[in-house]
Amino acid sequence: MATHKTSLKKSDLKENTPVRVEVDGKSAMVVLINGNVYAINALCSHHEGPLNEGTLDGFIIECPWHGAKYDVRNGQGSDETPWGPGQESYPVKMDGSGSISLEF
Q1: Upper half-sphere CA count for residue 36 (Cβ side, 13 Å)
Q2: What is the DSSP string of 13-64?
Q3: Which of 10, 11, 77, 83 counts the most CB atoms within 10 A of its CB?
Q4: What is the pLDDT of residue 1?
């Protein structure tokens, strides 16, 4: 895996508010929850809906298009929505200034 720097800093994020970033050809949804930053593929694996526009409930993001649900900590699809298989998740790294990088 290589490390890919995003345009975000942790201080740019608001708790429980997903944002979408484009980094080195990948679309990622990044979210800050309880002080921790998580990142998964921004496009729903069901029909590529914009997950960053979905509803967040705890660690579960629900796609705004067809309701597929994913755990933002690991991209795992919910048993409630088997039509939405898991999402690719990206390990998050931060440097001393709070700049966010993703590994993929």
Answers
A1: 9
A2: --BT--EEEEETTEEEEEEEETTEEEEEESB-TTT--BGGGSEEETTEEE-T
A3: 77
A4: 86
- Banded model confidence at residue 80, pLDDT cuts 50, 70, 90: very high
- Cα–Cα distance, 47 to 25 (Å, whole number): 19
The β-bridge partners of 22 are 27
Strands 3-9, 99-103: pairing kind: antiparallel
Of 86, 101, 78, nearest to 30 by C-alpha is 101
What's the pTM value of the predicted model, to 2 decimals? 0.94
